[in-house]
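@channel anyone free to eyeball this complex?
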Amino acid sequence: MTTLYGYFRSSAAYRVRIALNLKGLSYDQVPVNLVKGEQHGDANRARNPQGLVPSLVVEDGQVLNQSLAICEYLNEKHPEKPLLPADAEGRVRVRSLAQIVACEIHPLNNLRVLKYLVGEMNATEEAKLAWYRHWIAEGFTALEAMLSREAGSGDFCHGDTPTLADLCLVPQVYNAERFECDLTPYPRIQEIATNCRALPAFAQAAPEAQTDAPQ
Amino acid sequence: MTTLYGYFRSSAAYRVRIALNLKGLSYDQVPVNLVKGEQHGDANRARNPQGLVPSLVVEDGQVLNQSLAICEYLNEKHPEKPLLPADAEGRVRVRSLAQIVACEIHPLNNLRVLKYLVGEMNATEEAKLAWYRHWIAEGFTALEAMLSREAGSGDFCHGDTPTLADLCLVPQVYNAERFECDLTPYPRIQEIATNCRALPAFAQAAPEAQTDAPQ
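replying in thread with the prediction:
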């Protein structure tokens, strides 16, 4: 059995849920409560030495960490409904869009980072929010430009089927909404997110649809 | 001709230089001076809407952004001397090690982030340094554990040839040294970095070997 150790609100776990759903794979979910600090416990550190989520334990027992690496693995093991285009030129574009979120926006707004800002650097709530919104605006401005002007875009980030880029984008849009970022400057991002969310694979992966979400 | 727009000290450009060298590809380099702010100019933003480096312009004119996406592209187009193992289990491990650096350490210590901490949040030089070293220690502690205990490790992060993981690790070690982080808790990381640096592909990619480095 495939088991996902995650948390309903973790962007990175959310990406993996979407990938698993798009591939039509069945999996168990075990919540690791980030607010209670369970990610720092021995059980989670044994799976993930960074004390982060998600980890995916696959059928042969291998423990996989890092959401994009996990999604690439799932895509290699289950090539149907590909998460990457068939051509190298398309793949580099999709990975690049995904990495704008995964390497430039999300790492800065992670829970552990916000905690450090408040706990170690005495950031006010206002400064923390400004930080959060700043990095989303920086990344989304670039993404919006690329999604608007580049020929590769379609109903989704790349063409008319969801890819690795979409499964990074949608959780980031969720975070932006949660922190009340103004999304009006990003009509293409909003449009693509709407198209994604209309698919069951995305809807069923949403934080509010998870069993560890507050009712 | 392939042209790399980068900066001698940019970790992400350094990764791409290593990849190009390992593949034995020839390329021109055009420096984008990050200290002078050239990354925010129109010329760079036309290539890279985020105002970052590196960008790689390949022979057909396509502009590639995001260092890991670029390295995957180079690896696909030039399969000899592979940067990823042949098995999916190995590939997910290598990508995961690479992403610990690229998604969890480096994004937090980027120049634009340090500038924000000082300029917008009034961080002192001491607080900035503590921040820098904190995220390296967090990531390197996890990496050291994985590189020590996991069977996949060898002379390099994975086995006995350099992979995507090594070309993320070495620039991060360079940054750690530059900011005088204590590396004694990480003997495996140091050993692997030493093995990498003994290879011409790594040595020739080092910041101090670039034409835009101060003499």
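from a first look: Strands of chain B lie at 3-6, 28-31, 55-57, 63-65.
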